[in-house]
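Structure tokens
________________
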Amino acid sequence: MLCQGPRGVPLNLPASQLKQTPLAHVIDSWVALVFLVLECGLVLLFTRRRPWPDLAQRAPQRSIALREMAVLWIYGAVVLLAGRWLGFHIFGAGIAMHLNGSLVGATRIQSPHEVYLWADYNFIFLALLPYIVFRMRGYSREQLNLKSANWKNDTLVILAVLAIGCLIDLRGPNILQLTPHQRIVGGLLSFVIHLFLTDVPVMIFIYGILLPRYARLFSPATAFLLGAASYPAIHIFETFTRYDSPFDSLVSAIFVFLFFFPPGVMKSFLTMRTGNTWVHMWGFHAISPHVTIDTRLIVQDFKIM
């Protein structure tokens, strides 16, 4: 059902969230960008003795990098469109990179079967198959940003970023408001599901494969911004979006970009600074917010008492 905010903005948001305008959600996201900039400064402090990795050297020559980038995005678009079609025909809601209700509140209850299918679909087509193909093309784990050059420093960065993220998550509804049983069972289940649903697909597709090719084809600043913008791009069919008309489509696309660009900035920065895409996944994705916040969603969908 289409839920409209106070100003009639066409986004599929729950009634509890409509007390705020969609603009308020965007403002909250961009206020968080200020804290992300401060986090980036902290990361720079912790990594000041490390050289910047040359991600461009991890990609092939420009003509091949351009072709691989284009083919991967065409493939990704097909996967996203097919997932949306498949989801609507099976469940009445397109497969997205986040479950219904993640971060913005739920408008429907999803069955465990639906949750598992979403996770399997995204993991297989956006993580496993791209990884296998590029490994078969001769790219090493280092060339795919999947190998640490300084695991001790990477661990320090992960722990620092994760600690800040968890503290921020405690401001609103979070895992601590659940029963001990729900925290343990729901938290572990949320961790595993989101690992396959969005964490690993984003890590491999964007920051493992695409980012080095951006670095080969463009300046470091442009590569960084493209890495940041790729994160909202892959979320274009989030469950709160509407594409029933040109106006709805425009509003949804703008909202997705403004909502997801700030976290994309952090993910792109962490990967470019460390050369290790595992850093952003463990420090800024897998636990915060998908365990600290989204466990409540999993508890609801799986009816964990």
